[in-house]
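Before surveying the methods themselves, it helps to consider a single example record, giving the amino acid sequence and backbone structure tokens:
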Amino acid sequence: RRAAEIAAAGMHNFLMIGSPGAGKTMIARRMPSIMPELSLEESMEISQVYSACGLLAEQGGLITRRPFRSPHHTISANALAGGG
């Protein structure tokens, strides 16, 4: 938990390794709530990406919450990077 707080405060990445049931998924799902608020520049950049993907119409206006993605644990490295 402390590593997650430090990573969120410093806007760093961190790797979670542990046995099943250790709380890795729980911490990952709560990361957006402890991260700093979006700046106007970040909000505009995220909104531009959502708009280009056609996802902004249902949201309307600027995106104000940090996006969170939860890929399946069997995802390949290529798919995680955006490949097919």
Summary: The longest helix spans residues 40-52. The mean pLDDT is 84. Helices lie at 2-9, 24-34, 40-52, 56-59, 77-80. Residues 32 and 68 are 7 Å apart (CA to CA).
